[in-house]
Amino acid sequence: MTEPTSSTPASEDDAPAPLPGRHGASRTPLADAVLAVARRDIASFHALPLSHGRSIRDSRIRESYEALFGAAQLAADVSYSGTMLDSFFRPRGPLREAQRLSAEGFGADATFFLSTGTSTANRVALTALARPGSRVLADRSCHQSVHFALGALGVDVTYAPMQRCCTGCPRTFGDLPRLLEMFRTAVAEGQPYDTVVLSAVSYDGVRYDLPTVLAELAAAHPTVSVLVDEAWGAVHRFHPRLRPLTALHAVETLRRAKGTPPLTVAVTHSAHKSMSALRQGSYLHLIGDGEAQERTAQALFQHHTTSPSWPVLASLDLARLQAETEGEQLLDRSLRLARTLRTELSTDPRLSAYRALGPEGHLTDPALLVSDDPTRVLVDIGALGITAADFRRILFDEYALYVARESGDAVLFHVHIGVDEATLLRLLDALRTIQRTYRTASAALTQGTSDHFIIAYPPGIPITVPGERLCDRTLGEIDALRSSGCEIYTLQHPTVSPAASVPPARPAVSAVPTAPAVSAATAVPAGRK
């Protein structure tokens, strides 16, 4: 029988012998192999002229390359395959062993490494699970890669609806009770869904109750296939508080309770989002028999680049080892720092303009089958009188702090394992300074008698001077000037006592114009909500 092109991990009996000095969970076979070839001065007649920096040795821009990537990165980025290092699509050596160790660590039957991100992992998984003409029930909140893949597979897709957390929180997520009702109804009508797709750990910090959801699906239709996109929760497997809601742990629980169910489950993890992996490093875990594993291997061959990044793949090996040996300790710190952030926001009067949304008071209804991710802190900044977009830009430009997500008046802080105590202190200091500056500016731009100069630049002529009243017409003029490209500044009259400029606990946001402003001679932006 001809051996198929496959990256199906080997059984333990077929695995290569442990490398000298490495045993069990302390082994990183792929990282060791990549490091070994990086240390050799190998000249390639194949591809990748940049490897070892050979093509830039006499280049005028060599310093830029080395400043960005370093000599070690250039040496590790190699194009060797087959017996020289390993075959990506039919691994026999260190990659195969690294994938086997990862499957053991995560609790999967098989694990595949990808260097092109979880968008590719989702396409691979759906190609393996969803046959043309089959019926698919998909969580509407899934990543775009899922929607695009389903559209190309020739399947009959039904979307389960989404719902909003509540009026005080902008997060949305899948309506899981409705999804399960739709699934059971289809089974009862004799037209069951063959595949279900779930987005179980969201960007915004919503986690699904996967033990309940997967148990319900298996009870109604035991042979269903399920794709669980846990892109943002790869590291959760390695902490006792976070592990119970993970997909692979849920399947383990099902197996202990009912034996090995025929349920086939694929789980995708963006390792770089929560673990110490390079960007685009992704795991695809599979719970399923040999046929399911072979279909997945064939789908990987169809969708993954034939030029994988060996540094990215090696980082998946290293990230798994760190998560197994240090993950609980690192996540303990993340959970503690997230609690500290919430506590400081709720108790420090210098942070009274901020309001943490959850985990207390949000997503507490077990009937929703969702809960908060405690490592994410969603913060309402509306009382500052500036837009969330302006707030993000200020943090980045002035304090070298980056927050990726904004939703309405809220921004999301992800307290991942790379955030330490010093980083949190930097954030808290920045938040206090921003509140002190911007709340004062917002208070200056409210209706009533002003004790500030309000100046449009250009041309630099005051719109109001201290003692003049601000009315809707003046505020409208400020908005119009801002829209035309002017910057708006507020400058406190030098004879006014600083105490007179202390803002109210929550300024009237309707009176805050969309304009940059200056308070106490400091340039700051302000925005009408």
UniProtKB/TrEMBL annotation:
Known cofactor(s): pyridoxal 5'-phosphate
Keyword Disulfide bond: no
Keyword Zinc-finger applies: no
Gene3D superfamilies, sorted: Molybdopterin biosynthesis moea protein, domain 2, Type I PLP-dependent aspartate aminotransferase-like (Major domain)
Pfam families reported in the protein's UniProt record: OKR_DC_1 (PF01276)
Keywords: Pyridoxal phosphate
Gene Ontology molecular function: any one: catalytic activity
Polar residues composition bias: residue spans: 1-10
PANTHER family xref list: ARGININE DECARBOXYLASE
Name of the protein: Arginine decarboxylase
Lineage per the UniProt record: Bacteria, Bacillati, Actinomycetota, Actinomycetes, Kitasatosporales
